[in-house]
Amino acid sequence: MVVDDSAVVRRVIGDILKSDPAIELLGAAADPIFAMRRMEKAWPDVIVLDVEMPRMDGITFLKKLMRERPTPVVICSTLTEKSAQTTMEAMAAGAVDIITKPKMGLKDFLQDSATVLKQAVKNAARAKVSRLHRPGSTTNKPVSVVEVGEKHSADVILGAGRPSAMTQTTEQIVAIGTSTGGTNALEYVLTALPRICPGIVIVQHMPEQFTAAFADRLNSVCKIEVREAKDQDTVMPGVALIAPGGRHMMLKRSGAKYRVEVVEGPLVNRHRPSVDVLFRSVARYAGSNAMGIIMTGMGDDGAKGLLEMHDAGAYTLAQDEESCVVYGMPKEAVKLGATDSIVPLSDVGSAIMQYERVRDCG
Hints:
Elements: E1 2-3, H1 7-18, E2 28-29, H2 32-39, E3 47-49, H3 58-68, E4 73-78, H4 81-92, E5 97-101, H5 106-112, H6 114-125, E6 173-178, H7 182-191, E7 199-204, H8 210-221, E8 225-228, E9 239-242, E10 248-254, E11 257-263, H9 275-285, E12 290-294, H10 303-311, E13 315-319, H11 329-335, E14 341-343, H12 345-361
Parallel strand pairs: 1-2, 1-3, 3-4, 4-5, 6-7, 6-12, 7-9, 8-9, 12-13, 13-14
Antiparallel strand pairs: 10-11
Helix pairs in contact: 1-5, 3-4, 4-8, 7-12, 9-10, 10-11
C-alpha cells in the first residue's frame, strides 16, 4: 500500500512496484484516513508512507499502526535538514527503512531509484516488526538504506595489508556495525552504557543527512556523548562516533591515540558507509585492543571485516537471531567463524563493559 498526498508520487511508485512480479500493489491513498478504509478489505505486507500529509500525518499514523497492528513501513521522505528531523520522529514510531526523494525532479529520481525502492519493500516484508518495540523505550528508530550497483569489497577503500596495531595500549576501541533494525538496537545498547566506557565507532546504514539527526536524538537519551563523526575526530572514552551517511569511516592510529578518517569512495557491499571498511581499519590499527560487534541487518556487510578483526586478536561478538529484526549480517559473520560469542541484544551493553574490566585487569 502506497500512502502519499502527491498524485505524482503515488503514480510513479505504484508503477515501479507493479513492474516487479514479486510485488502486488493493493492500492494507493492520498492520506492515512483513505488508506485505513482501503486496508480494511485487504491488509498489506508493507506500507510505503510519506511523512507530511493532510488530515493525519505519517507520525501519528505510524504510532496508530504499531499500537494496533504492527506492519513493516518504508518512509518516503524529502531529503532536507528539516525533513530529516521530522523523518527521525517518524522512524521513532516504528518504520524499518527510508527512501529519500528530492524536492525537484521527483519523477526522474524515483524512476532512477526503482531498484532501490523495490528492494527496500522486499527487505521490509522480511523484517520482524514485533521486535521493534520494547517497554520503556524513549525512541524507536529501525533505519537502514538499500543501495545498488556493483558489489565492491573493502579493497576499493582500504587495501589488505599488514596489521600495524600496537601490542597493547590503554586506549580500547569498540566497533559496531548494523543495518535494518539497527537504530533501535543501537539505542538499546548505548542507553545502557555508563558515562565512562570505551570509545565507540559505529557504522549504521543510513542515508546522507539522516545520521546527524539520528546521532542528536541518541545523544539526548544517552549518558555517553553521541555525535556524527567528522574527519580527524579523536576516539575518546565515553564518546560514540557514528559514520556520516554517504561517506566511509575508518579508524587510524595517531601515536597512542586513535582518530577517524571520513572519506568519499565507491559503495562497498552496496553501502556507503560500509561496516567492512570500518572493521578492516580497526583490525589493522587497533588489533587486539578492539572489540567488534555485528548486529541486526540485511545482507553480509561487516562479516568479512569482523573475521579480519577476529584474526587480528580482537574480541568479536554477534547479536543472536532471536533478538534481531533481520538476522542477515550476524548470520553471515557466524558462518565465517568470525565471532567469539553470540549474545542477545539485552547482553551487548554488559559485554562491552565486561570487556573493559577484563582488559583493565589484564
